[in-house]
Structures are given as structure tokens and as C-alpha cells.
Write a structure and sequence with these properties.
69 residues; flat
Length: 69
Amino acid sequence: YLEELPGGSANANIPILIRADMANFEVRRVLVDPGSSVDIMYARTFETLQLNERNLTPYVGSDLQGFNG
């Protein structure tokens, strides 16, 4: 969607924004971060999508130590 791109054109130095359907909702902006080591969904988003605990997958591995920008 060119109207959503800064300056109206593609640029290799900006994040990729995509649209997706999740749990029967149109999610208009999804950030794909290939360098991310953890996938986080805010609780409000989880509730808005009307998901419940059975939709969660427990993480098996080392503990999350913190976030660095």
C-alpha cells in the first residue's frame, strides 16, 4: 500500500508492514522483525482478538532475561 509508505515509495531501510487476518479480525499493521528473539503480543490485542488461554503456546527454553533497544 503505497499510501502507507513514507514518501509514497518503497525503501529498503524501513520495516515491512503487512496486513493479516487473525481470529476473524483484519489486522492492518503487523511488524515483521527478523532480528527478534521473542514474539510479544500485548494483552489488550490478545483480548481484542477474543483469544483465550488455550491459544497460548508455552515457551520451552531459556528464560527471557530482559529487553534491549
